Amino acid sequence: MPVGLLALALGGFGIGLTEFGIVGLLPQVATDFGVSESVAGYLVSGYALSVAVGAIALTAALARFDRKKVLLALMGLFIAGNLISALAPAYPVLMTGRIIAALCHGAFFGVGSVVAADMVAPNRRASAIALMFGGLTVANVAGVPAGTLLGEQLGWRSTFWALTIIGVLTLAGIRLLVPATPAPARVDLRGELGAFRRPQVWTSLAISVLAFAGVIGAFTYIAFTLTDVTGFTTATVPWLLVLYGAGTFAGNHLGGKLADRALNTSLATLLALITAVLALFALTAHSKPMTLVSLLLLGIVGLATAPGLQLRTMHYAQDAPIMASGANIAAFNIGNALGAWLSGLALAAGYGFVSPLWVGAAITLTGLAVLTTTTHRSRQQAPTAPRHAPSDKPAQPATITN
């Protein structure tokens, strides 16, 4: 594999750590700036909404420019945002830094996957893309706990300084190791937008929103649940997140395998399992042994839907791959923001730190209902559906996540 892929993977690692690394640091941030837990949680939802904007707007706006230069510019945004966060004297400034860093998220993965595929022979493109997205997976397994541990030892700002350094290294790696790529041929964005007239495309995006809203709504406040409900010490939170991260690593692989076999069936099964795990977690959150089990299970099933959800959207918008991919990444992050916001409302209403788990279970159950209903209707309206049923083995790789 070309060494330039490592630079792209490092960027994916940094972006993944930026997105969720703040979760384990929310108690510190809330105390430092004197804001409530629910307001601190807006640092997750604000980031997610900005990702959604960048995934669609920046991907479309930059589609006709030299891709290497686009990646360099996106890394510039990443560095600037994390530097502002590290220096933030007040909560609004920290939020501003998070928003700036988030704008590069969706576009980096969208453009970077194309660059990665172009760097290798046609028969190795899926492996190249998987390597770039591997950085995001590693961030979930090791980066988030490590960032939380760093913040616990040296203060939450140290994590943002580390992210700034990762951004500088990625920028240098792309500049030196990624080959120049000419501006692509004219992109017919208007034609691609026509795919969004299909109801099944919008239904797929809605399911993506609900699936991620349920999981991330619960996960956003998990540090408070672990310390204030279960009784773990703050120092143990990073190690507990390792357990969750290990589950996501296994779940991503499992989700891809299941989606290859039977897309809609696997998604329905996973959404039902997520609902059950969140309910189990809520009912047993006062038990340390059961919390460990719930964390691992939530990691395994929580993000296992991502490959299948990505493929489902791309299936119904096969003639609009650029916008479909960007739109689904946006849907994931709208879900992140929605879940964090709804869980924050439950906390603000005084329902306690178990309430985000119940909120998440209700949201994923809604997603299951939408999926079941739309799958049934699509079978009844087969003539208007795409040529291949979405449960057929998809042609797209099943390892890409948000």
Biggest β-sheet: count, sense, barrel? none
| Tally of strands | 0
Distance between the termini: 23 Å
Proportion of residues in β-strands: under 5%
* Mean pLDDT score: 83
Number of distinct helices: 17
**Order of H and E elements:** HHHHHHHHHHHHHHHHH
Rg over CA atoms, rounded to whole Å, is 20 Å
Structural class: mainly alpha
Pick out the low-confidence regions: 382-389, 391-402
Molecular shape = globular
Helix content: over 70%
Give a written overview of the molecule.
This protein is mainly α and 402 residues long. Helices cover 78% and strands 0% of the residues. It is built from 17 helices and no strands. The protein has helices at 4-20, 26-33, 37-61, 67-87, 91-102, 105-118, 125-154, 156-177, 189-193, 199-220, 222-230, 237-261, 263-283, 288-302, 305-316, 321-348, 355-380. Helix 7 runs antiparallel to helix 8 (156-177) and helix 10 packs antiparallel against helix 15 (305-316). The radius of gyration is 20 Å and the shape is globular. The relative contact order is 0.16. Mean pLDDT is 83; it is low at 382-389 and 391-402.
